[in-house]
User: Fold these one by one.
Assistant:
Number 1:
Amino acid sequence: MALLRMRKAFFSNAAVSGGPVTLDLDGGERAALNFERPLEATIVALMAAGIAKASTGTVLIGDYDPRVQSVHCKRIAGFVPHEPVALDDAAFSRYIAYRAALWNVDARWAQTHAAGLRERLEGMHEAFAYPLIGALVGMPRLLVIDRPQAAYARQILDVAGDRALLSTHANATAAQAFA
């Protein structure tokens, strides 16, 4: 079963548009999509995570349509935004507690898991590591990352493990680092 199926998925409103994208992504597979505009990369990542709904075409996460079953989609897909997050240790702990509650995960386990991920991501700037750790707290089967830093590709791919991974990029060099 494909974890992510996109068929001519396109998002458009008066200000922005992204797509169309056709893609199948099974468990353990990776796809790195390159777009000319950073905003288009973000829109496609949001569609792939079930956050933005396709205007035309189809997006299925697992067997769920985000337009109808968005809660189920969010249990499968973890989303990592492009924007860095600056948090001190206390704020990071609260962020992990929030993510644990959001994913209905035991808070103590989430804090322990987050601490382990922080160790594995040592050397990655915290502002980029924290959103990734937050997305991984729920143990998603699909990880969608919007324009990740190519310098951290090895570490990101390592912590992603055997999850399906979709990354969007605004330059071909960064996309190659995640392919």
Note: The radius of gyration is 16 Å.
Number 2:
Amino acid sequence: MKKKISGREGKLKGRRSLEDPNHEESEDQDLPSDEAGRLKIKKNYEELLGIRIEKLRGRVLNREKINKTIEGIYFICAACKRICHNLDEGLVEDPQNQNNLCGACAKERGVTGTAS
């Protein structure tokens, strides 16, 4: 007879086999779980997009609802061309969605706008 696994461990059981065995967990240990998750997603975007980052710079990649009031936004900064998240790096959103900047680049350029 199999032992039934319930709760969070049961939900994660199937995902463990899909994880990369070479993934470095030690660097994420000191981060809160949600921040570590966003860091992992950013790395996945970098790998998936590769050279297309130049073409897509300044654009929003994905919007997610964190809860009823908070929206998370993954985007490529138009200036530094890094994949950013509005909760980690900040976001100065461009109305045409072509020239979004992270908080550091917007501050460096003296740009103000709709900060998320």
Note: The chain is about 35% helix and 15% strand.
Number 3:
Amino acid sequence: MQDRRSAGAWFSDVGWRLVMLVPLLCGLAGFAAVPSDSRILFTRDTAVPPSVQEFAWRVIETRCNYQRYDRDQRSFWAYDAQARKVDAGVAYSINILSELTRKSTEPPAVIEMTIVDDGRLRLTALKSSFVVCGS
């Protein structure tokens, strides 16, 4: 009988600690980075700011020939993103891999774009393979 009480007390102690820990973790979660409206997955340490990431996603939505359903079924990964200073601001070169998750036989599409931030965001280059993207 003594063992059951010990086990019950142990579980009660662990449960109490969890009850105290959950609000603390929820409070800390409030300090996490704000997600952007971009569906392109960038590395955590990317040099591309959220506003440029969102603009890059809008370029894919409006200039690449994906049907909405097809676009929703795809994953988009920024496998190479670089920033460099230019005369008027910063140029971001972003290479994106787009894979269709439901069909592994289809080759991934590659989208390459350059976005310049000189006080306003503008697309200066757009190239793609396996999907038509127009500038």
Note: The longest helix spans residues 2-29.
Number 4:
Amino acid sequence: MVLCAVFLLGNVQAQKKKDQTPLDLKNVVIIGQMDDPSDRYSVEINMTELFSTNGVKSKASLNLMKQGADSEILASDSLKSLLQKEGFDTYLLITVRGYDKRFKISDANDDFKTSLSRGNLFSIYQEGVVSVSFEFKFFRNGELVRDEVIKCGNAGSREKVLSKLRKKVRKRLVKDWK
């Protein structure tokens, strides 16, 4: 019993240490993992603009593949080498994880390709929903380097959710990610 508690405590401390390692974000390819093309476009364009205006070289995945194409193409060696030549080594996967304020980050330490293959069940906004939880996963060399949840409360409309998301991401970008 004590050994189990020590093991679990060790995992929690390891997770906290991983989250505390500096991200030192200089460049990022932004991938919105949403089923609705308009949601994906809105998130990717908003985040690309936000990162660029804050001094982080950024590119939306929409500029890298055709509409409706499988996002797993982004994990292909040819595309990764092309992006590396352009100076991109960090990938950001943004996913709506639900409408619950109590959403927690999964303990699964997936690689980039596995995370791309996961589906997304939620849209940015649904009528009657109060809170939207976004998961931000940063990858380098195909490995997860940071995983965070950003919760946007008082979601009265799709525009409010996007506005609150921009505001919260701007704070994290300046304070923790750069």
Note: Residues 1-18 have pLDDT under 50 and may be disordered.
